[in-house]
Request: fold
Amino acid sequence: MDAPVHEHDHGHHGLTGSSTRRLALVASINAVGFVLELAGGLLFGSVALLSDAAHMLFDGLAYGMAFGAAIVAARYDGSDRWSFGLHRLEPLSAFLNGVLLVPMVAYILYEAVQRFLDPVVIQTGPTIALATGGLLINLLSVYVLQGHEMSLNERGAFYHLLGDAGASVAVILSTAVVHFTGFRAIDPITAGLIAVLVLYSAGKLLRGSGAIFLQAAPVSRSEIESRLVDVPGVGRVLDCHTWQICSEITVATVRVDVRVESLTEASEVTDRIHERLAEMGVSHATVELCHANCERRVQLSAHDH
Reply:
């Protein structure tokens, strides 16, 4: 006798309201910083400042798109048509951010090469002032996010902001070198280093969002098997699959061989399996129980397909 299939949802509402507001605030702060640094880079001739502005624009867009995706996903969090809501918008927005960043990096590198071949006079005082302002904006954003348990989106934003702060420090130091030594080539060199940092961030976004879209397993089969075989009543795991809807929603389907004699025992085993899966970060699970002789039916079914 096969036990019934049980589905369990540990909640997949994405970002909380306070988390969404924090991302919106950080996006707004970075938008202001981008405008100031862009204007300063164009006015005072610093390509390093322009590259830092581009980095700030990228992060501001990332936070803004994450905020927009969270708002839309919250409005459609499960329906007859969208059973998992629209939480796929989160990896989609991350992927688009990564793709759009590539031509931005190419432009920064092009400008850096041009400035290296033909250095221009940099107004060091205003440039340092704006770069310092950018650093303060990054630190303010870090302050907004820290001090509580951060969501995955917020942790990503937090690490990006630390990178932004490092880029602002690099601009300040390179501009100080120009001011005191006259070595103007340091400005495009710094811009190139920041471009590499931005490209690294883009690569992480593309890999992370691509893994979600291509349904890479966030929890390995071996880990699931090792955790579930310790559950009393479970013989072995016959089949399991895990994938992600977005960074905060992990889904799993599991078929296990059990040693139970009643539906009550089956229900208890199912609850314990759901608890173990939840400990591994699974937010929505479907568990099917069966006795050992059902494995043959599974193999025949796989052969038929």
